[in-house]
What does this fold into?
Amino acid sequence: MRRRHLRGVMAIERRVYPRPWSPSLFLAEMAESSNRCYLVARLGREVVGYGGVICYGDEAHVTNIAVAPEHQHRGIATRLLHDLILAAVDMGAEAVSLEVRVTNWRAQRLYARFGFRPVGVRRNYYQEVGEDALIMWADDVRRSAYLAKLREIVSGLPEGIQP
It folds into this structure.
């Protein structure tokens, strides 16, 4: 993700989150590049999705992942999550965590494909809508079997999605 992508990122952010991050928060996150990675997905020049991961030692956390509603169900989130996990591995992660709304079954199914499993609940995490978050973890992400699984997941994705 670069500064020039922020307009597209913010357009998606405002559409998919009740309490969107500010542009300054994205810029601050991007400035901390030693332990963070923020990516965009593009179709041509259009930003259609984005995501971020932060790494602390051997643990990483997916901070956000979003796809424009009209571009969902095309493998974009799958590609982003794949690339974020690889970035986390490159930064030294052994495990990756994330939160997801307890009612977001589609996202939970995606995360389960990547080996994430539920480990707990954060009550009222999404305060603006009064919803709990399911905490999910994927362990042993550096193992060759896990990395082979990642390659298999993205092998069937359509071409044309540019990280």
